[in-house]
Amino acid sequence: MWLPAVTITPPEAEPVLLAAAKQYLRIDAADGSFDNEIETYIAASRAEVERITNTRLITQVVVLQSGSLADLEHLPIGPVQSIEALNYVDSTGDEQLLPDADYALVASGLDGKIIRPKGVTWPTIADRADAVRVTATVGYGAAGSDLPRDLYFVVLRAIRAKFDGSELAIEHMLVNHRIWMS
User: Fold this and answer.
1) Which of 41, 77, 83, 146 has its CA 20 to 30 A from that of 110?
2) Which domains does the chain have, with CATH numbers?
3) Local structure of 114: helix, strand or coil
4) With contact defined as beta carbons under 8 Å apart, do 60 and 15 qualify?
């Protein structure tokens, strides 16, 4: 079972630029009176979409922890761009780094897993909930233009709902962009 992901390098940008949000909200570009509020709504909307979908929209580095190497068969976050490190706590309680040659990332879209190459035997790990630690770079890309267009639109709709103080059935809009965990 996976523990909640921890972001160690946050995204360098938001998926929606302030100017694009203001245009969508039909606010004059020169009117700066709502800028702080809109920037807060942009960040909150990104966080809400990421929480619901178990994804990261803009490239960032996260740490995932689990108690079993078997959990690597289904990574709980995506889209995974690369694995930076795979650490584990061995049966004596010492932290070890698994060599890059002893695992491979298999990722397509939102599905990601780490496999062991043929002929490789994985080590025995400690019996604890955080025995396996994966440091991964995740996200669709460095800018909002890297997101699928319908997902970008959901973020815009969430910003508008927050700005207007209205409800949005966002879960239904995100069904096809979710990583489902059992």
Assistant:
1) 41
2) 6-57+142-177 (1.10.3230.30), 60-136 (no CATH)
3) strand
4) no
Give, in order, the Cα–Cα distances in Å from 133 to each of 53, 68, 72, 90: 21, 10, 10, 12
**pLDDT tens for each residue of 7-27:** 999 999 999 999 999 999 999
Only one residue has tokens 């998926």, namely 15
One-letter amino acid of 141: G
- Res. 180: pLDDT tops 90: no
CB-based contact 10:137 (threshold 8 Å): no
Q: Is 67 left (phi over 0), alpha (psi -120 to 50) or beta?
A: alpha
Report the 10 Å Cβ neighbour count for 162: 18
What is the pTM assigned to this prediction? 0.91
Using an 8 Å Cβ cutoff, are 50 and 73 in contact? no
Task: For residues 151 and 158, give the distance between their C-alpha atoms in angstroms, rounded to a whole number.
Answer: 11
Check if the beta carbon of residue 6 is closer than 8 Å to that of residue 66: no
Judged against a pLDDT cut of 80, whether residue 134 lies above it is answered with yes
> What is residue 43's predicted lDDT score, i.e. its pLDDT?
98
